[in-house]
Amino acid sequence: MLRVMASLSVQPRACSVARTLELVGDKWALLAVREVFHGNRRFDEMVRRIGAPRDTLAARLRTLVGAGILKRHQYSEHPPRFEYHLTEAGRDLYPVILTLMRWGDTYLAGADGPPLTLRHQCGHPLTAQVVCEACGEPVTAGSAKPATAAR
Amino acid sequence: MLRVMASLSVQPRACSVARTLELVGDKWALLAVREVFHGNRRFDEMVRRIGAPRDTLAARLRTLVGAGILKRHQYSEHPPRFEYHLTEAGRDLYPVILTLMRWGDTYLAGADGPPLTLRHQCGHPLTAQVVCEACGEPVTAGSAKPATAAR
DNA sequence: GCGAGTTAGTCTGATTTCTGGACTCACTGT
DNA sequence: ACAGTGAGTCCAGAAATCAGACTAACTCGC
Lengths: 151, 151
Fold this sequence. Notes:
The structure is a homodimer. Chain A is α+β, with helices and mostly antiparallel strands.
């Protein structure tokens, strides 16, 4: 009788990457966060700088606020007006933005170099590097492995 | 007559983050890359581990191959069969995956902790940290500013 | 006090994309 | 001979995206 199913097995991986992408795995979502890092906190300004459809951006901002990445703050009573600010969780997305930026700088920059350079407070132009917090060494594709494997 | 337009101005920012997201700013694309990092290079296995619709995954893999992030390699002649391997550009997405993973580990892990721990070759569990390549200091939201500002 | 501008959205209807499931085709293994 | 694997494609309905027009509540300059 029950010869149905049997294959399939292996449900999708529980994975922090997947969970995170569920929230910000979308061009407009991450660009909205980028804009707030750039100090543009208002809807219209974001629409202009990002180039997203107003509709879509409004939806994304709702998601981001719901996820606790941004908070919506009223700065004017009477014509009610709002700004979006980063929460701590939002600020912690900075590394994600920086690694994406570095990849684009490396592989997608045109002849005249990256469109934007950041300067770190140490005085040097910022090149974002991912290191192991414990030993300080850069992490490359082959230098990390699943711990304890399956279970 | 031409009272149309006038506002609008400010075209969307040229930005490495935006360009990169144009390629991988999609849940399934990045999860496909994650799977290849996990060593799963074949279509069916990816479908199972990612949980993506076969159609969508097929489309994403085409994009990724076209973008030079993956390459498609035939491992069987007769029933023609293919595997996806990372190019150098693909391997350089590892930092992006790691920062997304760290964010999810921090903000989305359930009671029993992150679903997957990596061990760095130094022996410690890996916690990915983004530092300034020049000075080695961690980069936080406020510690970097646009260089030379506008123009 | 009037028209123009600003701000934060919402509404609209026409695409476009996504989705799960069935299907194909060429094998292999039992 | 029959089930299974692997890499997709095909389908039709559901959902999301898009550009642009619209709204509503002001403020500003003249």
